[in-house]
């Protein structure tokens, strides 16, 4: 963080207000114009800004507990202490992934096709897990959306992923639930289906309502109106509302009922990626219930909202992030406690994005303006001369009912060659500098980001080692060189290769596309982690050939390849 950050925060973000948590009056239906809602644009920006702060506060505070408690309440003494610096969550995937979707909207507008949205997501460079990872892998392998999120191709389609990322959709759609729903149809289907999709649309719907309502039950009900009533997700949230009414003063009793029905009962884990017998539960429904727990039992208090949502366990940084984002939207930035603002670094750049905090707020405001106009609304001055969003009241139109365990047919749609050419991430991490230092004349493509590929000065007793990693579970990293072999000499390719102590990988050697060697490089085939491999190239004497060395995945567990030597020799 830069020195003098406090002055920058005050100057750029206009932080004002006391240390209390009072709330400015919420915008309401305009008298005499009952078919529209009106909110001053300055107030919209203030609340939207608070929504982002809430996300950052929730994930920062809950982060140390993530998945440490599964099927159990986090003990009160295990809850971290809030520290103002926790707000700077610029390296947090629970924040920056959704900014990929914002960037697509910024560049292409609300009319962007789902196929283009998929290309942009496929080109993202950050590591992913579960539905996000499976969806992006599908996209990179040519499976176009919405099939990338369909249960036929994505075994994580009911997972939490789009629910984590849907905050953006509500924050740019104040009072416009159908915009929030349709953004889910465009971006949520890149990785999710059924309840996995509805979780995101529910969260986005709550955000859209939070600009105009502060009663948490009404906000939750507004979110429910955005998803199908016959879905298990709807049933889960309705149960939480009912159990809260029965146990308004003891959140642990409601937690127990949630756990019994939505964690221990296999009927509600039919498409759980970890299996109904597993304590690990990343299903969207139960984690959505924990968001609602914070909103209901937190009773409008920022700390208690985050703490309760966190202490519910499972994905205990994502859930308080969603809960705090929604609550903070109802409060507004000016009225937030100073402890959530004072240490914010406005110049910190969100990883894998072009955005710092002020840029993010500007982009969201621009998109909200477009959304208002696209929905038939207006931007005009009110009686006090304030610029306002005048937004037609919308009746939510939920997506169709679908279930991951009995899905409808996939569309069997694929990207064209022209579209695949736009997925430049298939080239992988830029390894040009590393390979030039290690083995001049060779090139690296399709190198994944995992396990920090690059040059190591020393690794497992060897000096100057090149580390690569497969691009994904299906695509290996390729080191290649086109070379003319001597006509009257026998040539040999010599490799000294090794593996990570925790895993293995397959070495494949190809010449002009023909496989000459496939060998597992692991504990059973190496000595102290290393082995020497020789490949006879004499059949290709006098020819110009392309040699490919493939770091092939074997099961997606610590599959980094260690290269201590790559040499061609002739005699």
Helix run count: 18
Give the quaternary arrangement of the chains.
single chain
Give the end-to-end Cα distance, rounded to a whole number of Å. 58 Å
CATH class of the largest domain: Mainly Alpha
Helix content: 25-40%
Please, how many domains? 2
Count of β-strands: 14
> Which spans have pLDDT < 50 for at least 5 consecutive residues?
1-24
CATH superfamily of the largest domain: ADP-ribosylation/Crystallin J1
Order of strands in the sheet with the most strands? 5-8-13-10-11
CATH architecture of the largest domain: Orthogonal Bundle
The residue-averaged pLDDT reads: 92
C-alpha-based Rg, rounded: 26 Å
Q: State the major sheet.
A: 5 strands, antiparallel
Please report which band the strand proportion falls in: under 5%, 5-15%, 15-25%, 25-35%, 35-45% or over 45%: 15-25%
CATH topology of the largest domain: ADP-ribosylglycohydrolase fold
* Helical/strand content category: alpha+beta
Silhouette: elongated
Task: Please provide a written account of the structure.
Helices cover 36% and strands 16% of the residues. The protein has 571 residues and is an alpha+beta fold. The chain has a 5-stranded antiparallel sheet. Strands 6-7-14-9-12 form a 5-stranded antiparallel sheet. Strands 1-2-4-3 form a 4-stranded antiparallel sheet. Helix 8 (177-187) packs antiparallel against helix 9. The radius of gyration is 26 Å and the shape is elongated. The termini are far apart.
């Amino acid at each position: 963080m830069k020195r003098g950050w406090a002055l920058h925060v005050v100057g750029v973000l206009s932080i004002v207000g006391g240390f209390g948590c009072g709330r400015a009056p919420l915008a309401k239906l305009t008298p005499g114009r009952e078919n529209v809602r009106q909110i001053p644009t300055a107030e919209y920006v203030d609340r939207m800004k608070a929504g982002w702060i809430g996300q950052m506060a929730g994930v920062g505070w809950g982060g140390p507990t993530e998945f440490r408690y599964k099927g159990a309440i986090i003990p009160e003494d295990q809850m971290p202490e809030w520290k103002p610096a926790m707000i700077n969550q610029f390296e947090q995937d629970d924040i920056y992934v959704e900014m990929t979707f914002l960037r697509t909207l910024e560049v292409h507008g609300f009319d962007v096709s789902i196929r283009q949205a998929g290309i942009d997501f496929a080109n993202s460079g950050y590591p992913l897990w579960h539905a996000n990872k499976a969806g992006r892998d599908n996209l990179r392998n040519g499976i176009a959306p919405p099939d990338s999120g369909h249960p036929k191709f994505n075994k994580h389609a009911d997972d939490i992923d789009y629910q984590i990322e849907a905050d953006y959709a509500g924050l740019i759609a104040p009072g416009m639930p159908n915009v929030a729903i349709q953004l889910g149809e465009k971006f949520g289907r890149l990785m999710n289906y059924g309840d996995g999709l509805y979780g995101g649309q529910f969260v986005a719907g709550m955000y859209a309502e939070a600009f105009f309502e502060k009663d948490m039950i009404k906000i939750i009900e507004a979110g429910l109106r955005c998803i199908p009533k016959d879905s298990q997700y709807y049933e889960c949230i309705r149960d939480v509302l009912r159990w809260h009414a029965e146990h308004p003063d003891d959140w642990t009793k409601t937690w127990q009922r949630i756990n019994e029905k939505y964690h221990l009962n296999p009927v509600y884990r039919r498409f759980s990626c970890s299996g109904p017998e597993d304590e690990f539960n990343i299903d969207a429904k139960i984690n959505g219930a924990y968001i609602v727990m914070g909103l209901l039992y937190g009773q409008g208090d920022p700390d208690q909202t985050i703490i309760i949502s966190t202490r519910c366990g499972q994905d205990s940084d994502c859930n308080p992030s969603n809960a705090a984002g929604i609550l903070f939207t109802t409060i507004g930035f000016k009225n937030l406690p100073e402890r959530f603002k004072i240490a914010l670094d406005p110049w910190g750049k969100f990883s894998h994005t072009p955005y710092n905090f002020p840029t993010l707020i500007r982009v969201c405001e621009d998109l909200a303006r477009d959304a208002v106009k696209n929905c038939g609304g207006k931007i005009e001055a009110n009686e006090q001369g304030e610029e306002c969003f005048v937004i037609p009241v919308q009746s939510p139109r939920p997506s169709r009912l679908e279930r991951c365990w009995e899905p409808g047919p996939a569309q069997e749609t694929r990207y064209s060659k022209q579209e695949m050419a736009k997925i430049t991430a298939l080239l992988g991490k830029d390894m040009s500098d590393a390979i030039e230092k290690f083995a001049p004349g060779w090139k690296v493509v399709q190198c994944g980001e995992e396990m920090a590929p690059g040059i190591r000065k020393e690794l497992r007793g060897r000096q100057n080692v090149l580390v690569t990693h497969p691009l994904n579970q299906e695509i290996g990293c390729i080191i290649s060189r086109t070379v003319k072999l001597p006509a009257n000499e026998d040539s040999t390719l010599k490799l000294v290769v090794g593996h990570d102590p925790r895993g293995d990988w397959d070495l494949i050697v190809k010449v002009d596309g023909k496989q000459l060697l496939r060998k597992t490089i692991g504990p059973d085939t190496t000595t102290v982690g290393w082995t020497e491999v020789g490949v006879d190239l004499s059949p290709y004497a006098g020819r110009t050939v392309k040699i490919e060395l493939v770091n092939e995945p074997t099961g997606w567990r610590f599959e980094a390849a260690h290269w201590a030597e790559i040499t061609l020799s002739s005699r």
